[in-house]
Design goal:
The chain has 2 helices and 4 strands; from the N terminus they run H-H-E-E-E-E. It is an alpha+beta fold. The protein folds into 2 domains: about 5-50; about 60-95, no CATH class. The longest helix is centred in the middle third of the chain and has 24 residues, at about 30-50. The radius of gyration is 22 Å and the shape is elongated. The termini are far apart. The model has no long low-confidence stretch (mean pLDDT about 85).
């Protein structure tokens, strides 16, 4: 088999997962065939990712929900910097990207 990048292995795994699901109830032998290919490419992707330390890592993110019905709207501060103003009950924020992993005061 050819050596692919992590993304290429994942794309192939997704393709074979789709095909396996397509044949799941109509042709069990094809379902098994494609599912085995799916597993193979997932395994290759895992092996590739463990060998490659330069994989991009998504920065940490948080999301905040105001879930206190008896409280007024609130401002949200992260490390003493206001990032959200007037969050009302049942309202939630979009994902807030943090600069780097670590400790934050919210």
């Amino acid at each position: 088999m050819a050596n692919y990048s992590f993304d290429q292995y994942i794309k192939k795994a997704m393709k074979y997962d789709f095909l396996a699901n397509y044949y799941k109830y109509s042709d069990p032998s094809k379902h098994i065939h494609y599912y085995q290919k799916h597993l193979y490419y997932i395994q290759q992707a895992i092996l590739t990712s463990s060998e490659n330390t330069n994989l991009r890592v998504n920065p940490p993110q948080i999301r905040i929900l105001h879930a206190s019905p008896d409280s007024p709207s609130v401002d949200i501060y992260i490390n003493n910097k206001r990032v959200i103003r007037n969050l009302t009950y049942k309202q939630e924020t979009d994902y807030i990207e943090l600069k780097e992993p670590g400790r934050y005061t919210i």
